[in-house]
Amino acid sequence: MDRIDAMQAFARVVETGSFTKAAETLQTNKTRVTQLIQQLETRLRVKLLHRTTRKVNATADGAAYYERVVRLLADFDDAETSLSAESAVPRGRLRVDVPAPFASLVLVPALPDFHARYPDIQLDLGASDRKVDLIDENVDCVLRGGELTELSLRARHVADLPLGVYAAPAYLARAGTPASPQALDDGQHVVIGYRGSRAGTPLAHTLHRGDERLQVRGRLVLTVDDGNAYLAAGVAGLGVLWLPTYMASAPLARGELVPLFEDWQLDPMPLYLAFPPNRHVSLKLRVFIDWIVELMARRAPGTMRMP
C-alpha cells in the first residue's frame, strides 16, 4: 500500500462523501479507492468511515485522522515544492469557475497576459452564474460577486465593484424616465429581476443619498438567473436593471443604456475568490489568485480593498 495514495483517497472520500466522486476527482476507479481505504483501516486497526447507501461519513476516529492527514499532505506538497528545481515554474491543470459576464468582459480578454506569464498552466474555465460545489466538482477556486454564504470556504476579497441603475432608451421612451428611485415602486415602471444561484427570489436594492436611504424592489415582469441574459434583457428595453459598471460601460458607450439616479449611490458589490477549506493552496492556484488581484487593481483602481 502506498500510504500517501491511501491518505489522499481517504481525504477525498471524506470531502466528497462518496467513493465514486472521490475516484473521479483522483482520476482513478472506485475499486482502487475502496481497496486503499480498506488497507488503511487494516493498517491503523480502526474504522475510519461509516458507509450507508446514501452517504459516507467519517467516524470519530476518522474525523480526527482526517485533520492530521490534511496537514500531512500539505506538508508533503510543500516539501516536494521546496526540493524540486522545477517547482519555481507553476504548472498543471487549474479548474476555475467565474460569472459568465465577468468571463467574457474581463477575464478572457486578459488571459493572453496570464498565459504569457504562466505558459505551463492549463486553465479549465467554467463560465456560469450557478452555485458550484468545489469539492464534488473538483474545482480549485470560484470567483463570485456578493457576500459569501458558504462560510466554510476560504476566501480572498479581491475587489469592490461599483454599481449603477440603468435602462434602455426604448424603455424610457415607452414608460417615461423615473424622476427618483421611489418611482420604481409606484407601479408605472418595471424592473428586471436577477435571481442568483444563492437566492430564491430577486433581492431589493438599497440606494442612499446623504442621510437618505431607500430600499427599492419594483414590479417584476421578468426574472433571469444568468448575467448575460440579464444585460440583454435591459438592452432590449424590458425594464430597469442594476449593473456593475464593468458590465454597463460598453452598452453606455454605444447608447444602448442610459444611467438613472446619478445623484444616488448603491453600495458596491464585493468580489471574492473562494477555494475549498483544508486544501493545500498549490503554486498554480497561488499565482492565479495574485494575478486576479493585480488584474482588478488595474481595471478598477480605487475599488480594491487590500487584504
UniProtKB/TrEMBL annotation:
Is Transmembrane helix among this UniProt entry's keywords? no
Keywords, A to Z, come to:
DNA-binding, Transcription, Transcription regulation
**Every HTH lysR-type domain range:** 1-59
What sections of the sequence does the record tag as coiled-coil? none
Record carries keyword DNA-binding: yes
Q: Which GO terms describe its molecular function?
A: DNA-binding transcription factor activity; sequence-specific DNA binding
Query: Entry's PROSITE patterns?
Result: HTH_LYSR
Question: Origin, by domain of life?
Answer: Bacteria
Any single Pfam family the record assigns to this protein? LysR_substrate
GO biological process terms held by the UniProt record: DNA-templated transcription
Entry-linked PANTHER family: HTH-TYPE TRANSCRIPTIONAL REGULATOR (PTHR30537), LYSR-FAMILY REGULATORY PROTEIN (PTHR30537:SF17)
The entry assigns this protein to a family as follows: Belongs to the LysR transcriptional regulatory family.
Tell me what this protein is called: LysR family regulatory protein
Q: Which organism is it from?
A: Stenotrophomonas acidaminiphila
Cite the source lineage: Bacteria, Pseudomonadati, Pseudomonadota, Gammaproteobacteria, Lysobacterales
